[in-house]
# Entry
Amino acid sequence: MTSVSDGVKELRAPLTVVAPGERGATRIADRVVAKVAAQAAGEALGKLPRDATRPHATVTVHHGTARVRVHLELDYPSDIGDRCGQVRRHVVERVGALVGMEVPEVVVHVERLHLVPAHGAAQGRTR
# Structure
């Protein structure tokens, strides 16, 4: 198809529709997914114990699915199983929403427990 514009001929290719599978793909690096997972774990935990380190994650991505390992520290006493379940659910939800990947597995490693002093308990050593 040709068109004339100010006396200059332009060649324009006819518009074609490219199938979505042929347009290319966006690849999200494993480390980006790991950062999203670590942030989600921190969101699920809420306030961390005073001397706890922030959660970190490692991720393996394969064909649009992400297998996640989250390493974190918890306060004690608490329901450790329930807290780990909250972390798993929130990581699956947030990685799916933000990155668009299915997360069939979230392994939670509790690295350390932090003893939370009871209200009114005396500070110091006891024997």
About this structure: The beta strands are 2-5, 8-11, 56-62, 65-76, 102-115.
